[in-house]
Design a protein that fits this description.
- With 80 residues, the protein is mainly α.
- It is built from four helices and no strands.
- α1 packs across α4 and α2 crosses α4.
Length: 80
């Protein structure tokens, strides 16, 4: 699964290697979600908008990875 996910991102997000921090974080998030390790605060309590430093940090992470995920999905759809 990890290999296929990595191949998917490398195929559909051509500039993914220019964003090594975000790439690593996306892999980590995918793994944590798949294994039930953790979920983001906004998923646990959507009404707690920006209620502390961890939430703000996770929001910045979400914004940083959003463009990568959007590019991957759009490029995958075009490929279909």
């Amino acid at each position: 699964v990890n290999r296929k996910f990595k191949e998917f991102l490398e195929k559909y997000v051509p500039n993914i290697d220019k964003l090594p921090k975000e790439k690593k974080i996306i892999y980590q998030i995918r793994s944590e979600l798949a294994h039930g390790v953790d979920i983001m605060l906004s998923d646990r309590d959507p009404s707690s908008f920006m209620s502390g430093p961890l939430h703000i940090s996770q929001d910045q992470l979400h914004r940083a990875t959003y463009e990568i995920v959007a590019a991957a999905l759009i490029n995958w759809l075009y490929d279909q």
